[in-house]
Amino acid sequence: MTLVLVSGINGFVAVEVLVSLLKRGYDVVGTIRSESKTAFLRNKFKDAVDSGKLKFAIVPDITVPGAFDEVLKQYQFDVVLHTSSPFYLNAKDVEKELLDPAIKGTKGILESIEKVAPSVKQVVITSSLAAVGNPKLGAAPGHVYTEEDWCPVEWDEAISNPYLGYLA
User: Fold this and answer.
1) For the whole prediction, is pTM greater than 0.90?
2) Measured between alpha carbons, how far is 162 from 62 in angstroms, rounded to an integer?
3) Which of 133, 61, 135 lies closest to 100 in space, CA to CA?
4) Which end of the chain has fewer CB atoms at under 10 Å, N or C?
5) pLDDT digits 0-9 by tens, 1-53
6) CA-to-CA distance for 24 and 9, rounded, in angstroms?
7) d(Cα 87, Cα 162) in Å, to the nearest integer?
């Protein structure tokens, strides 16, 4: 059976991905910051947890180099779905709370896969419309987004405002 690692398993997107993976019969290990945060998922997906189809791995800080090494060494993953990135609009330190986890977490999981997980055949990194939207233009009804579209928010703008920090 295909074994899938889903980072940030308790996030909005990750839970939807998890539902889809379990329906299709995949075995899933989800990373989460603390054991206490697994309670909701253990309840919601009780049958999957009880049958061993869903397991959890604690990764307290995705910004730490090698944060994903242990879980990637522990299992022989076929696929890694990186969904972990914080989103909230009341960040006090945008760089530390939003930008560092997004950037360092993504780079870190890729580096860990390369270093310790030769069994991984596919990697999916999720994103959102924030990556391609332009806050200066606002909504763009009818616009078809392509690889030419990227959010133009610069670093100095991003660290000044949690909303812009999320977009960046």
Assistant:
1) yes
2) 19
3) 61
4) N
5) 899 999 999 999 999 999 999 999 999 999 999 999 999 999 999 999 999 99
6) 17
7) 9
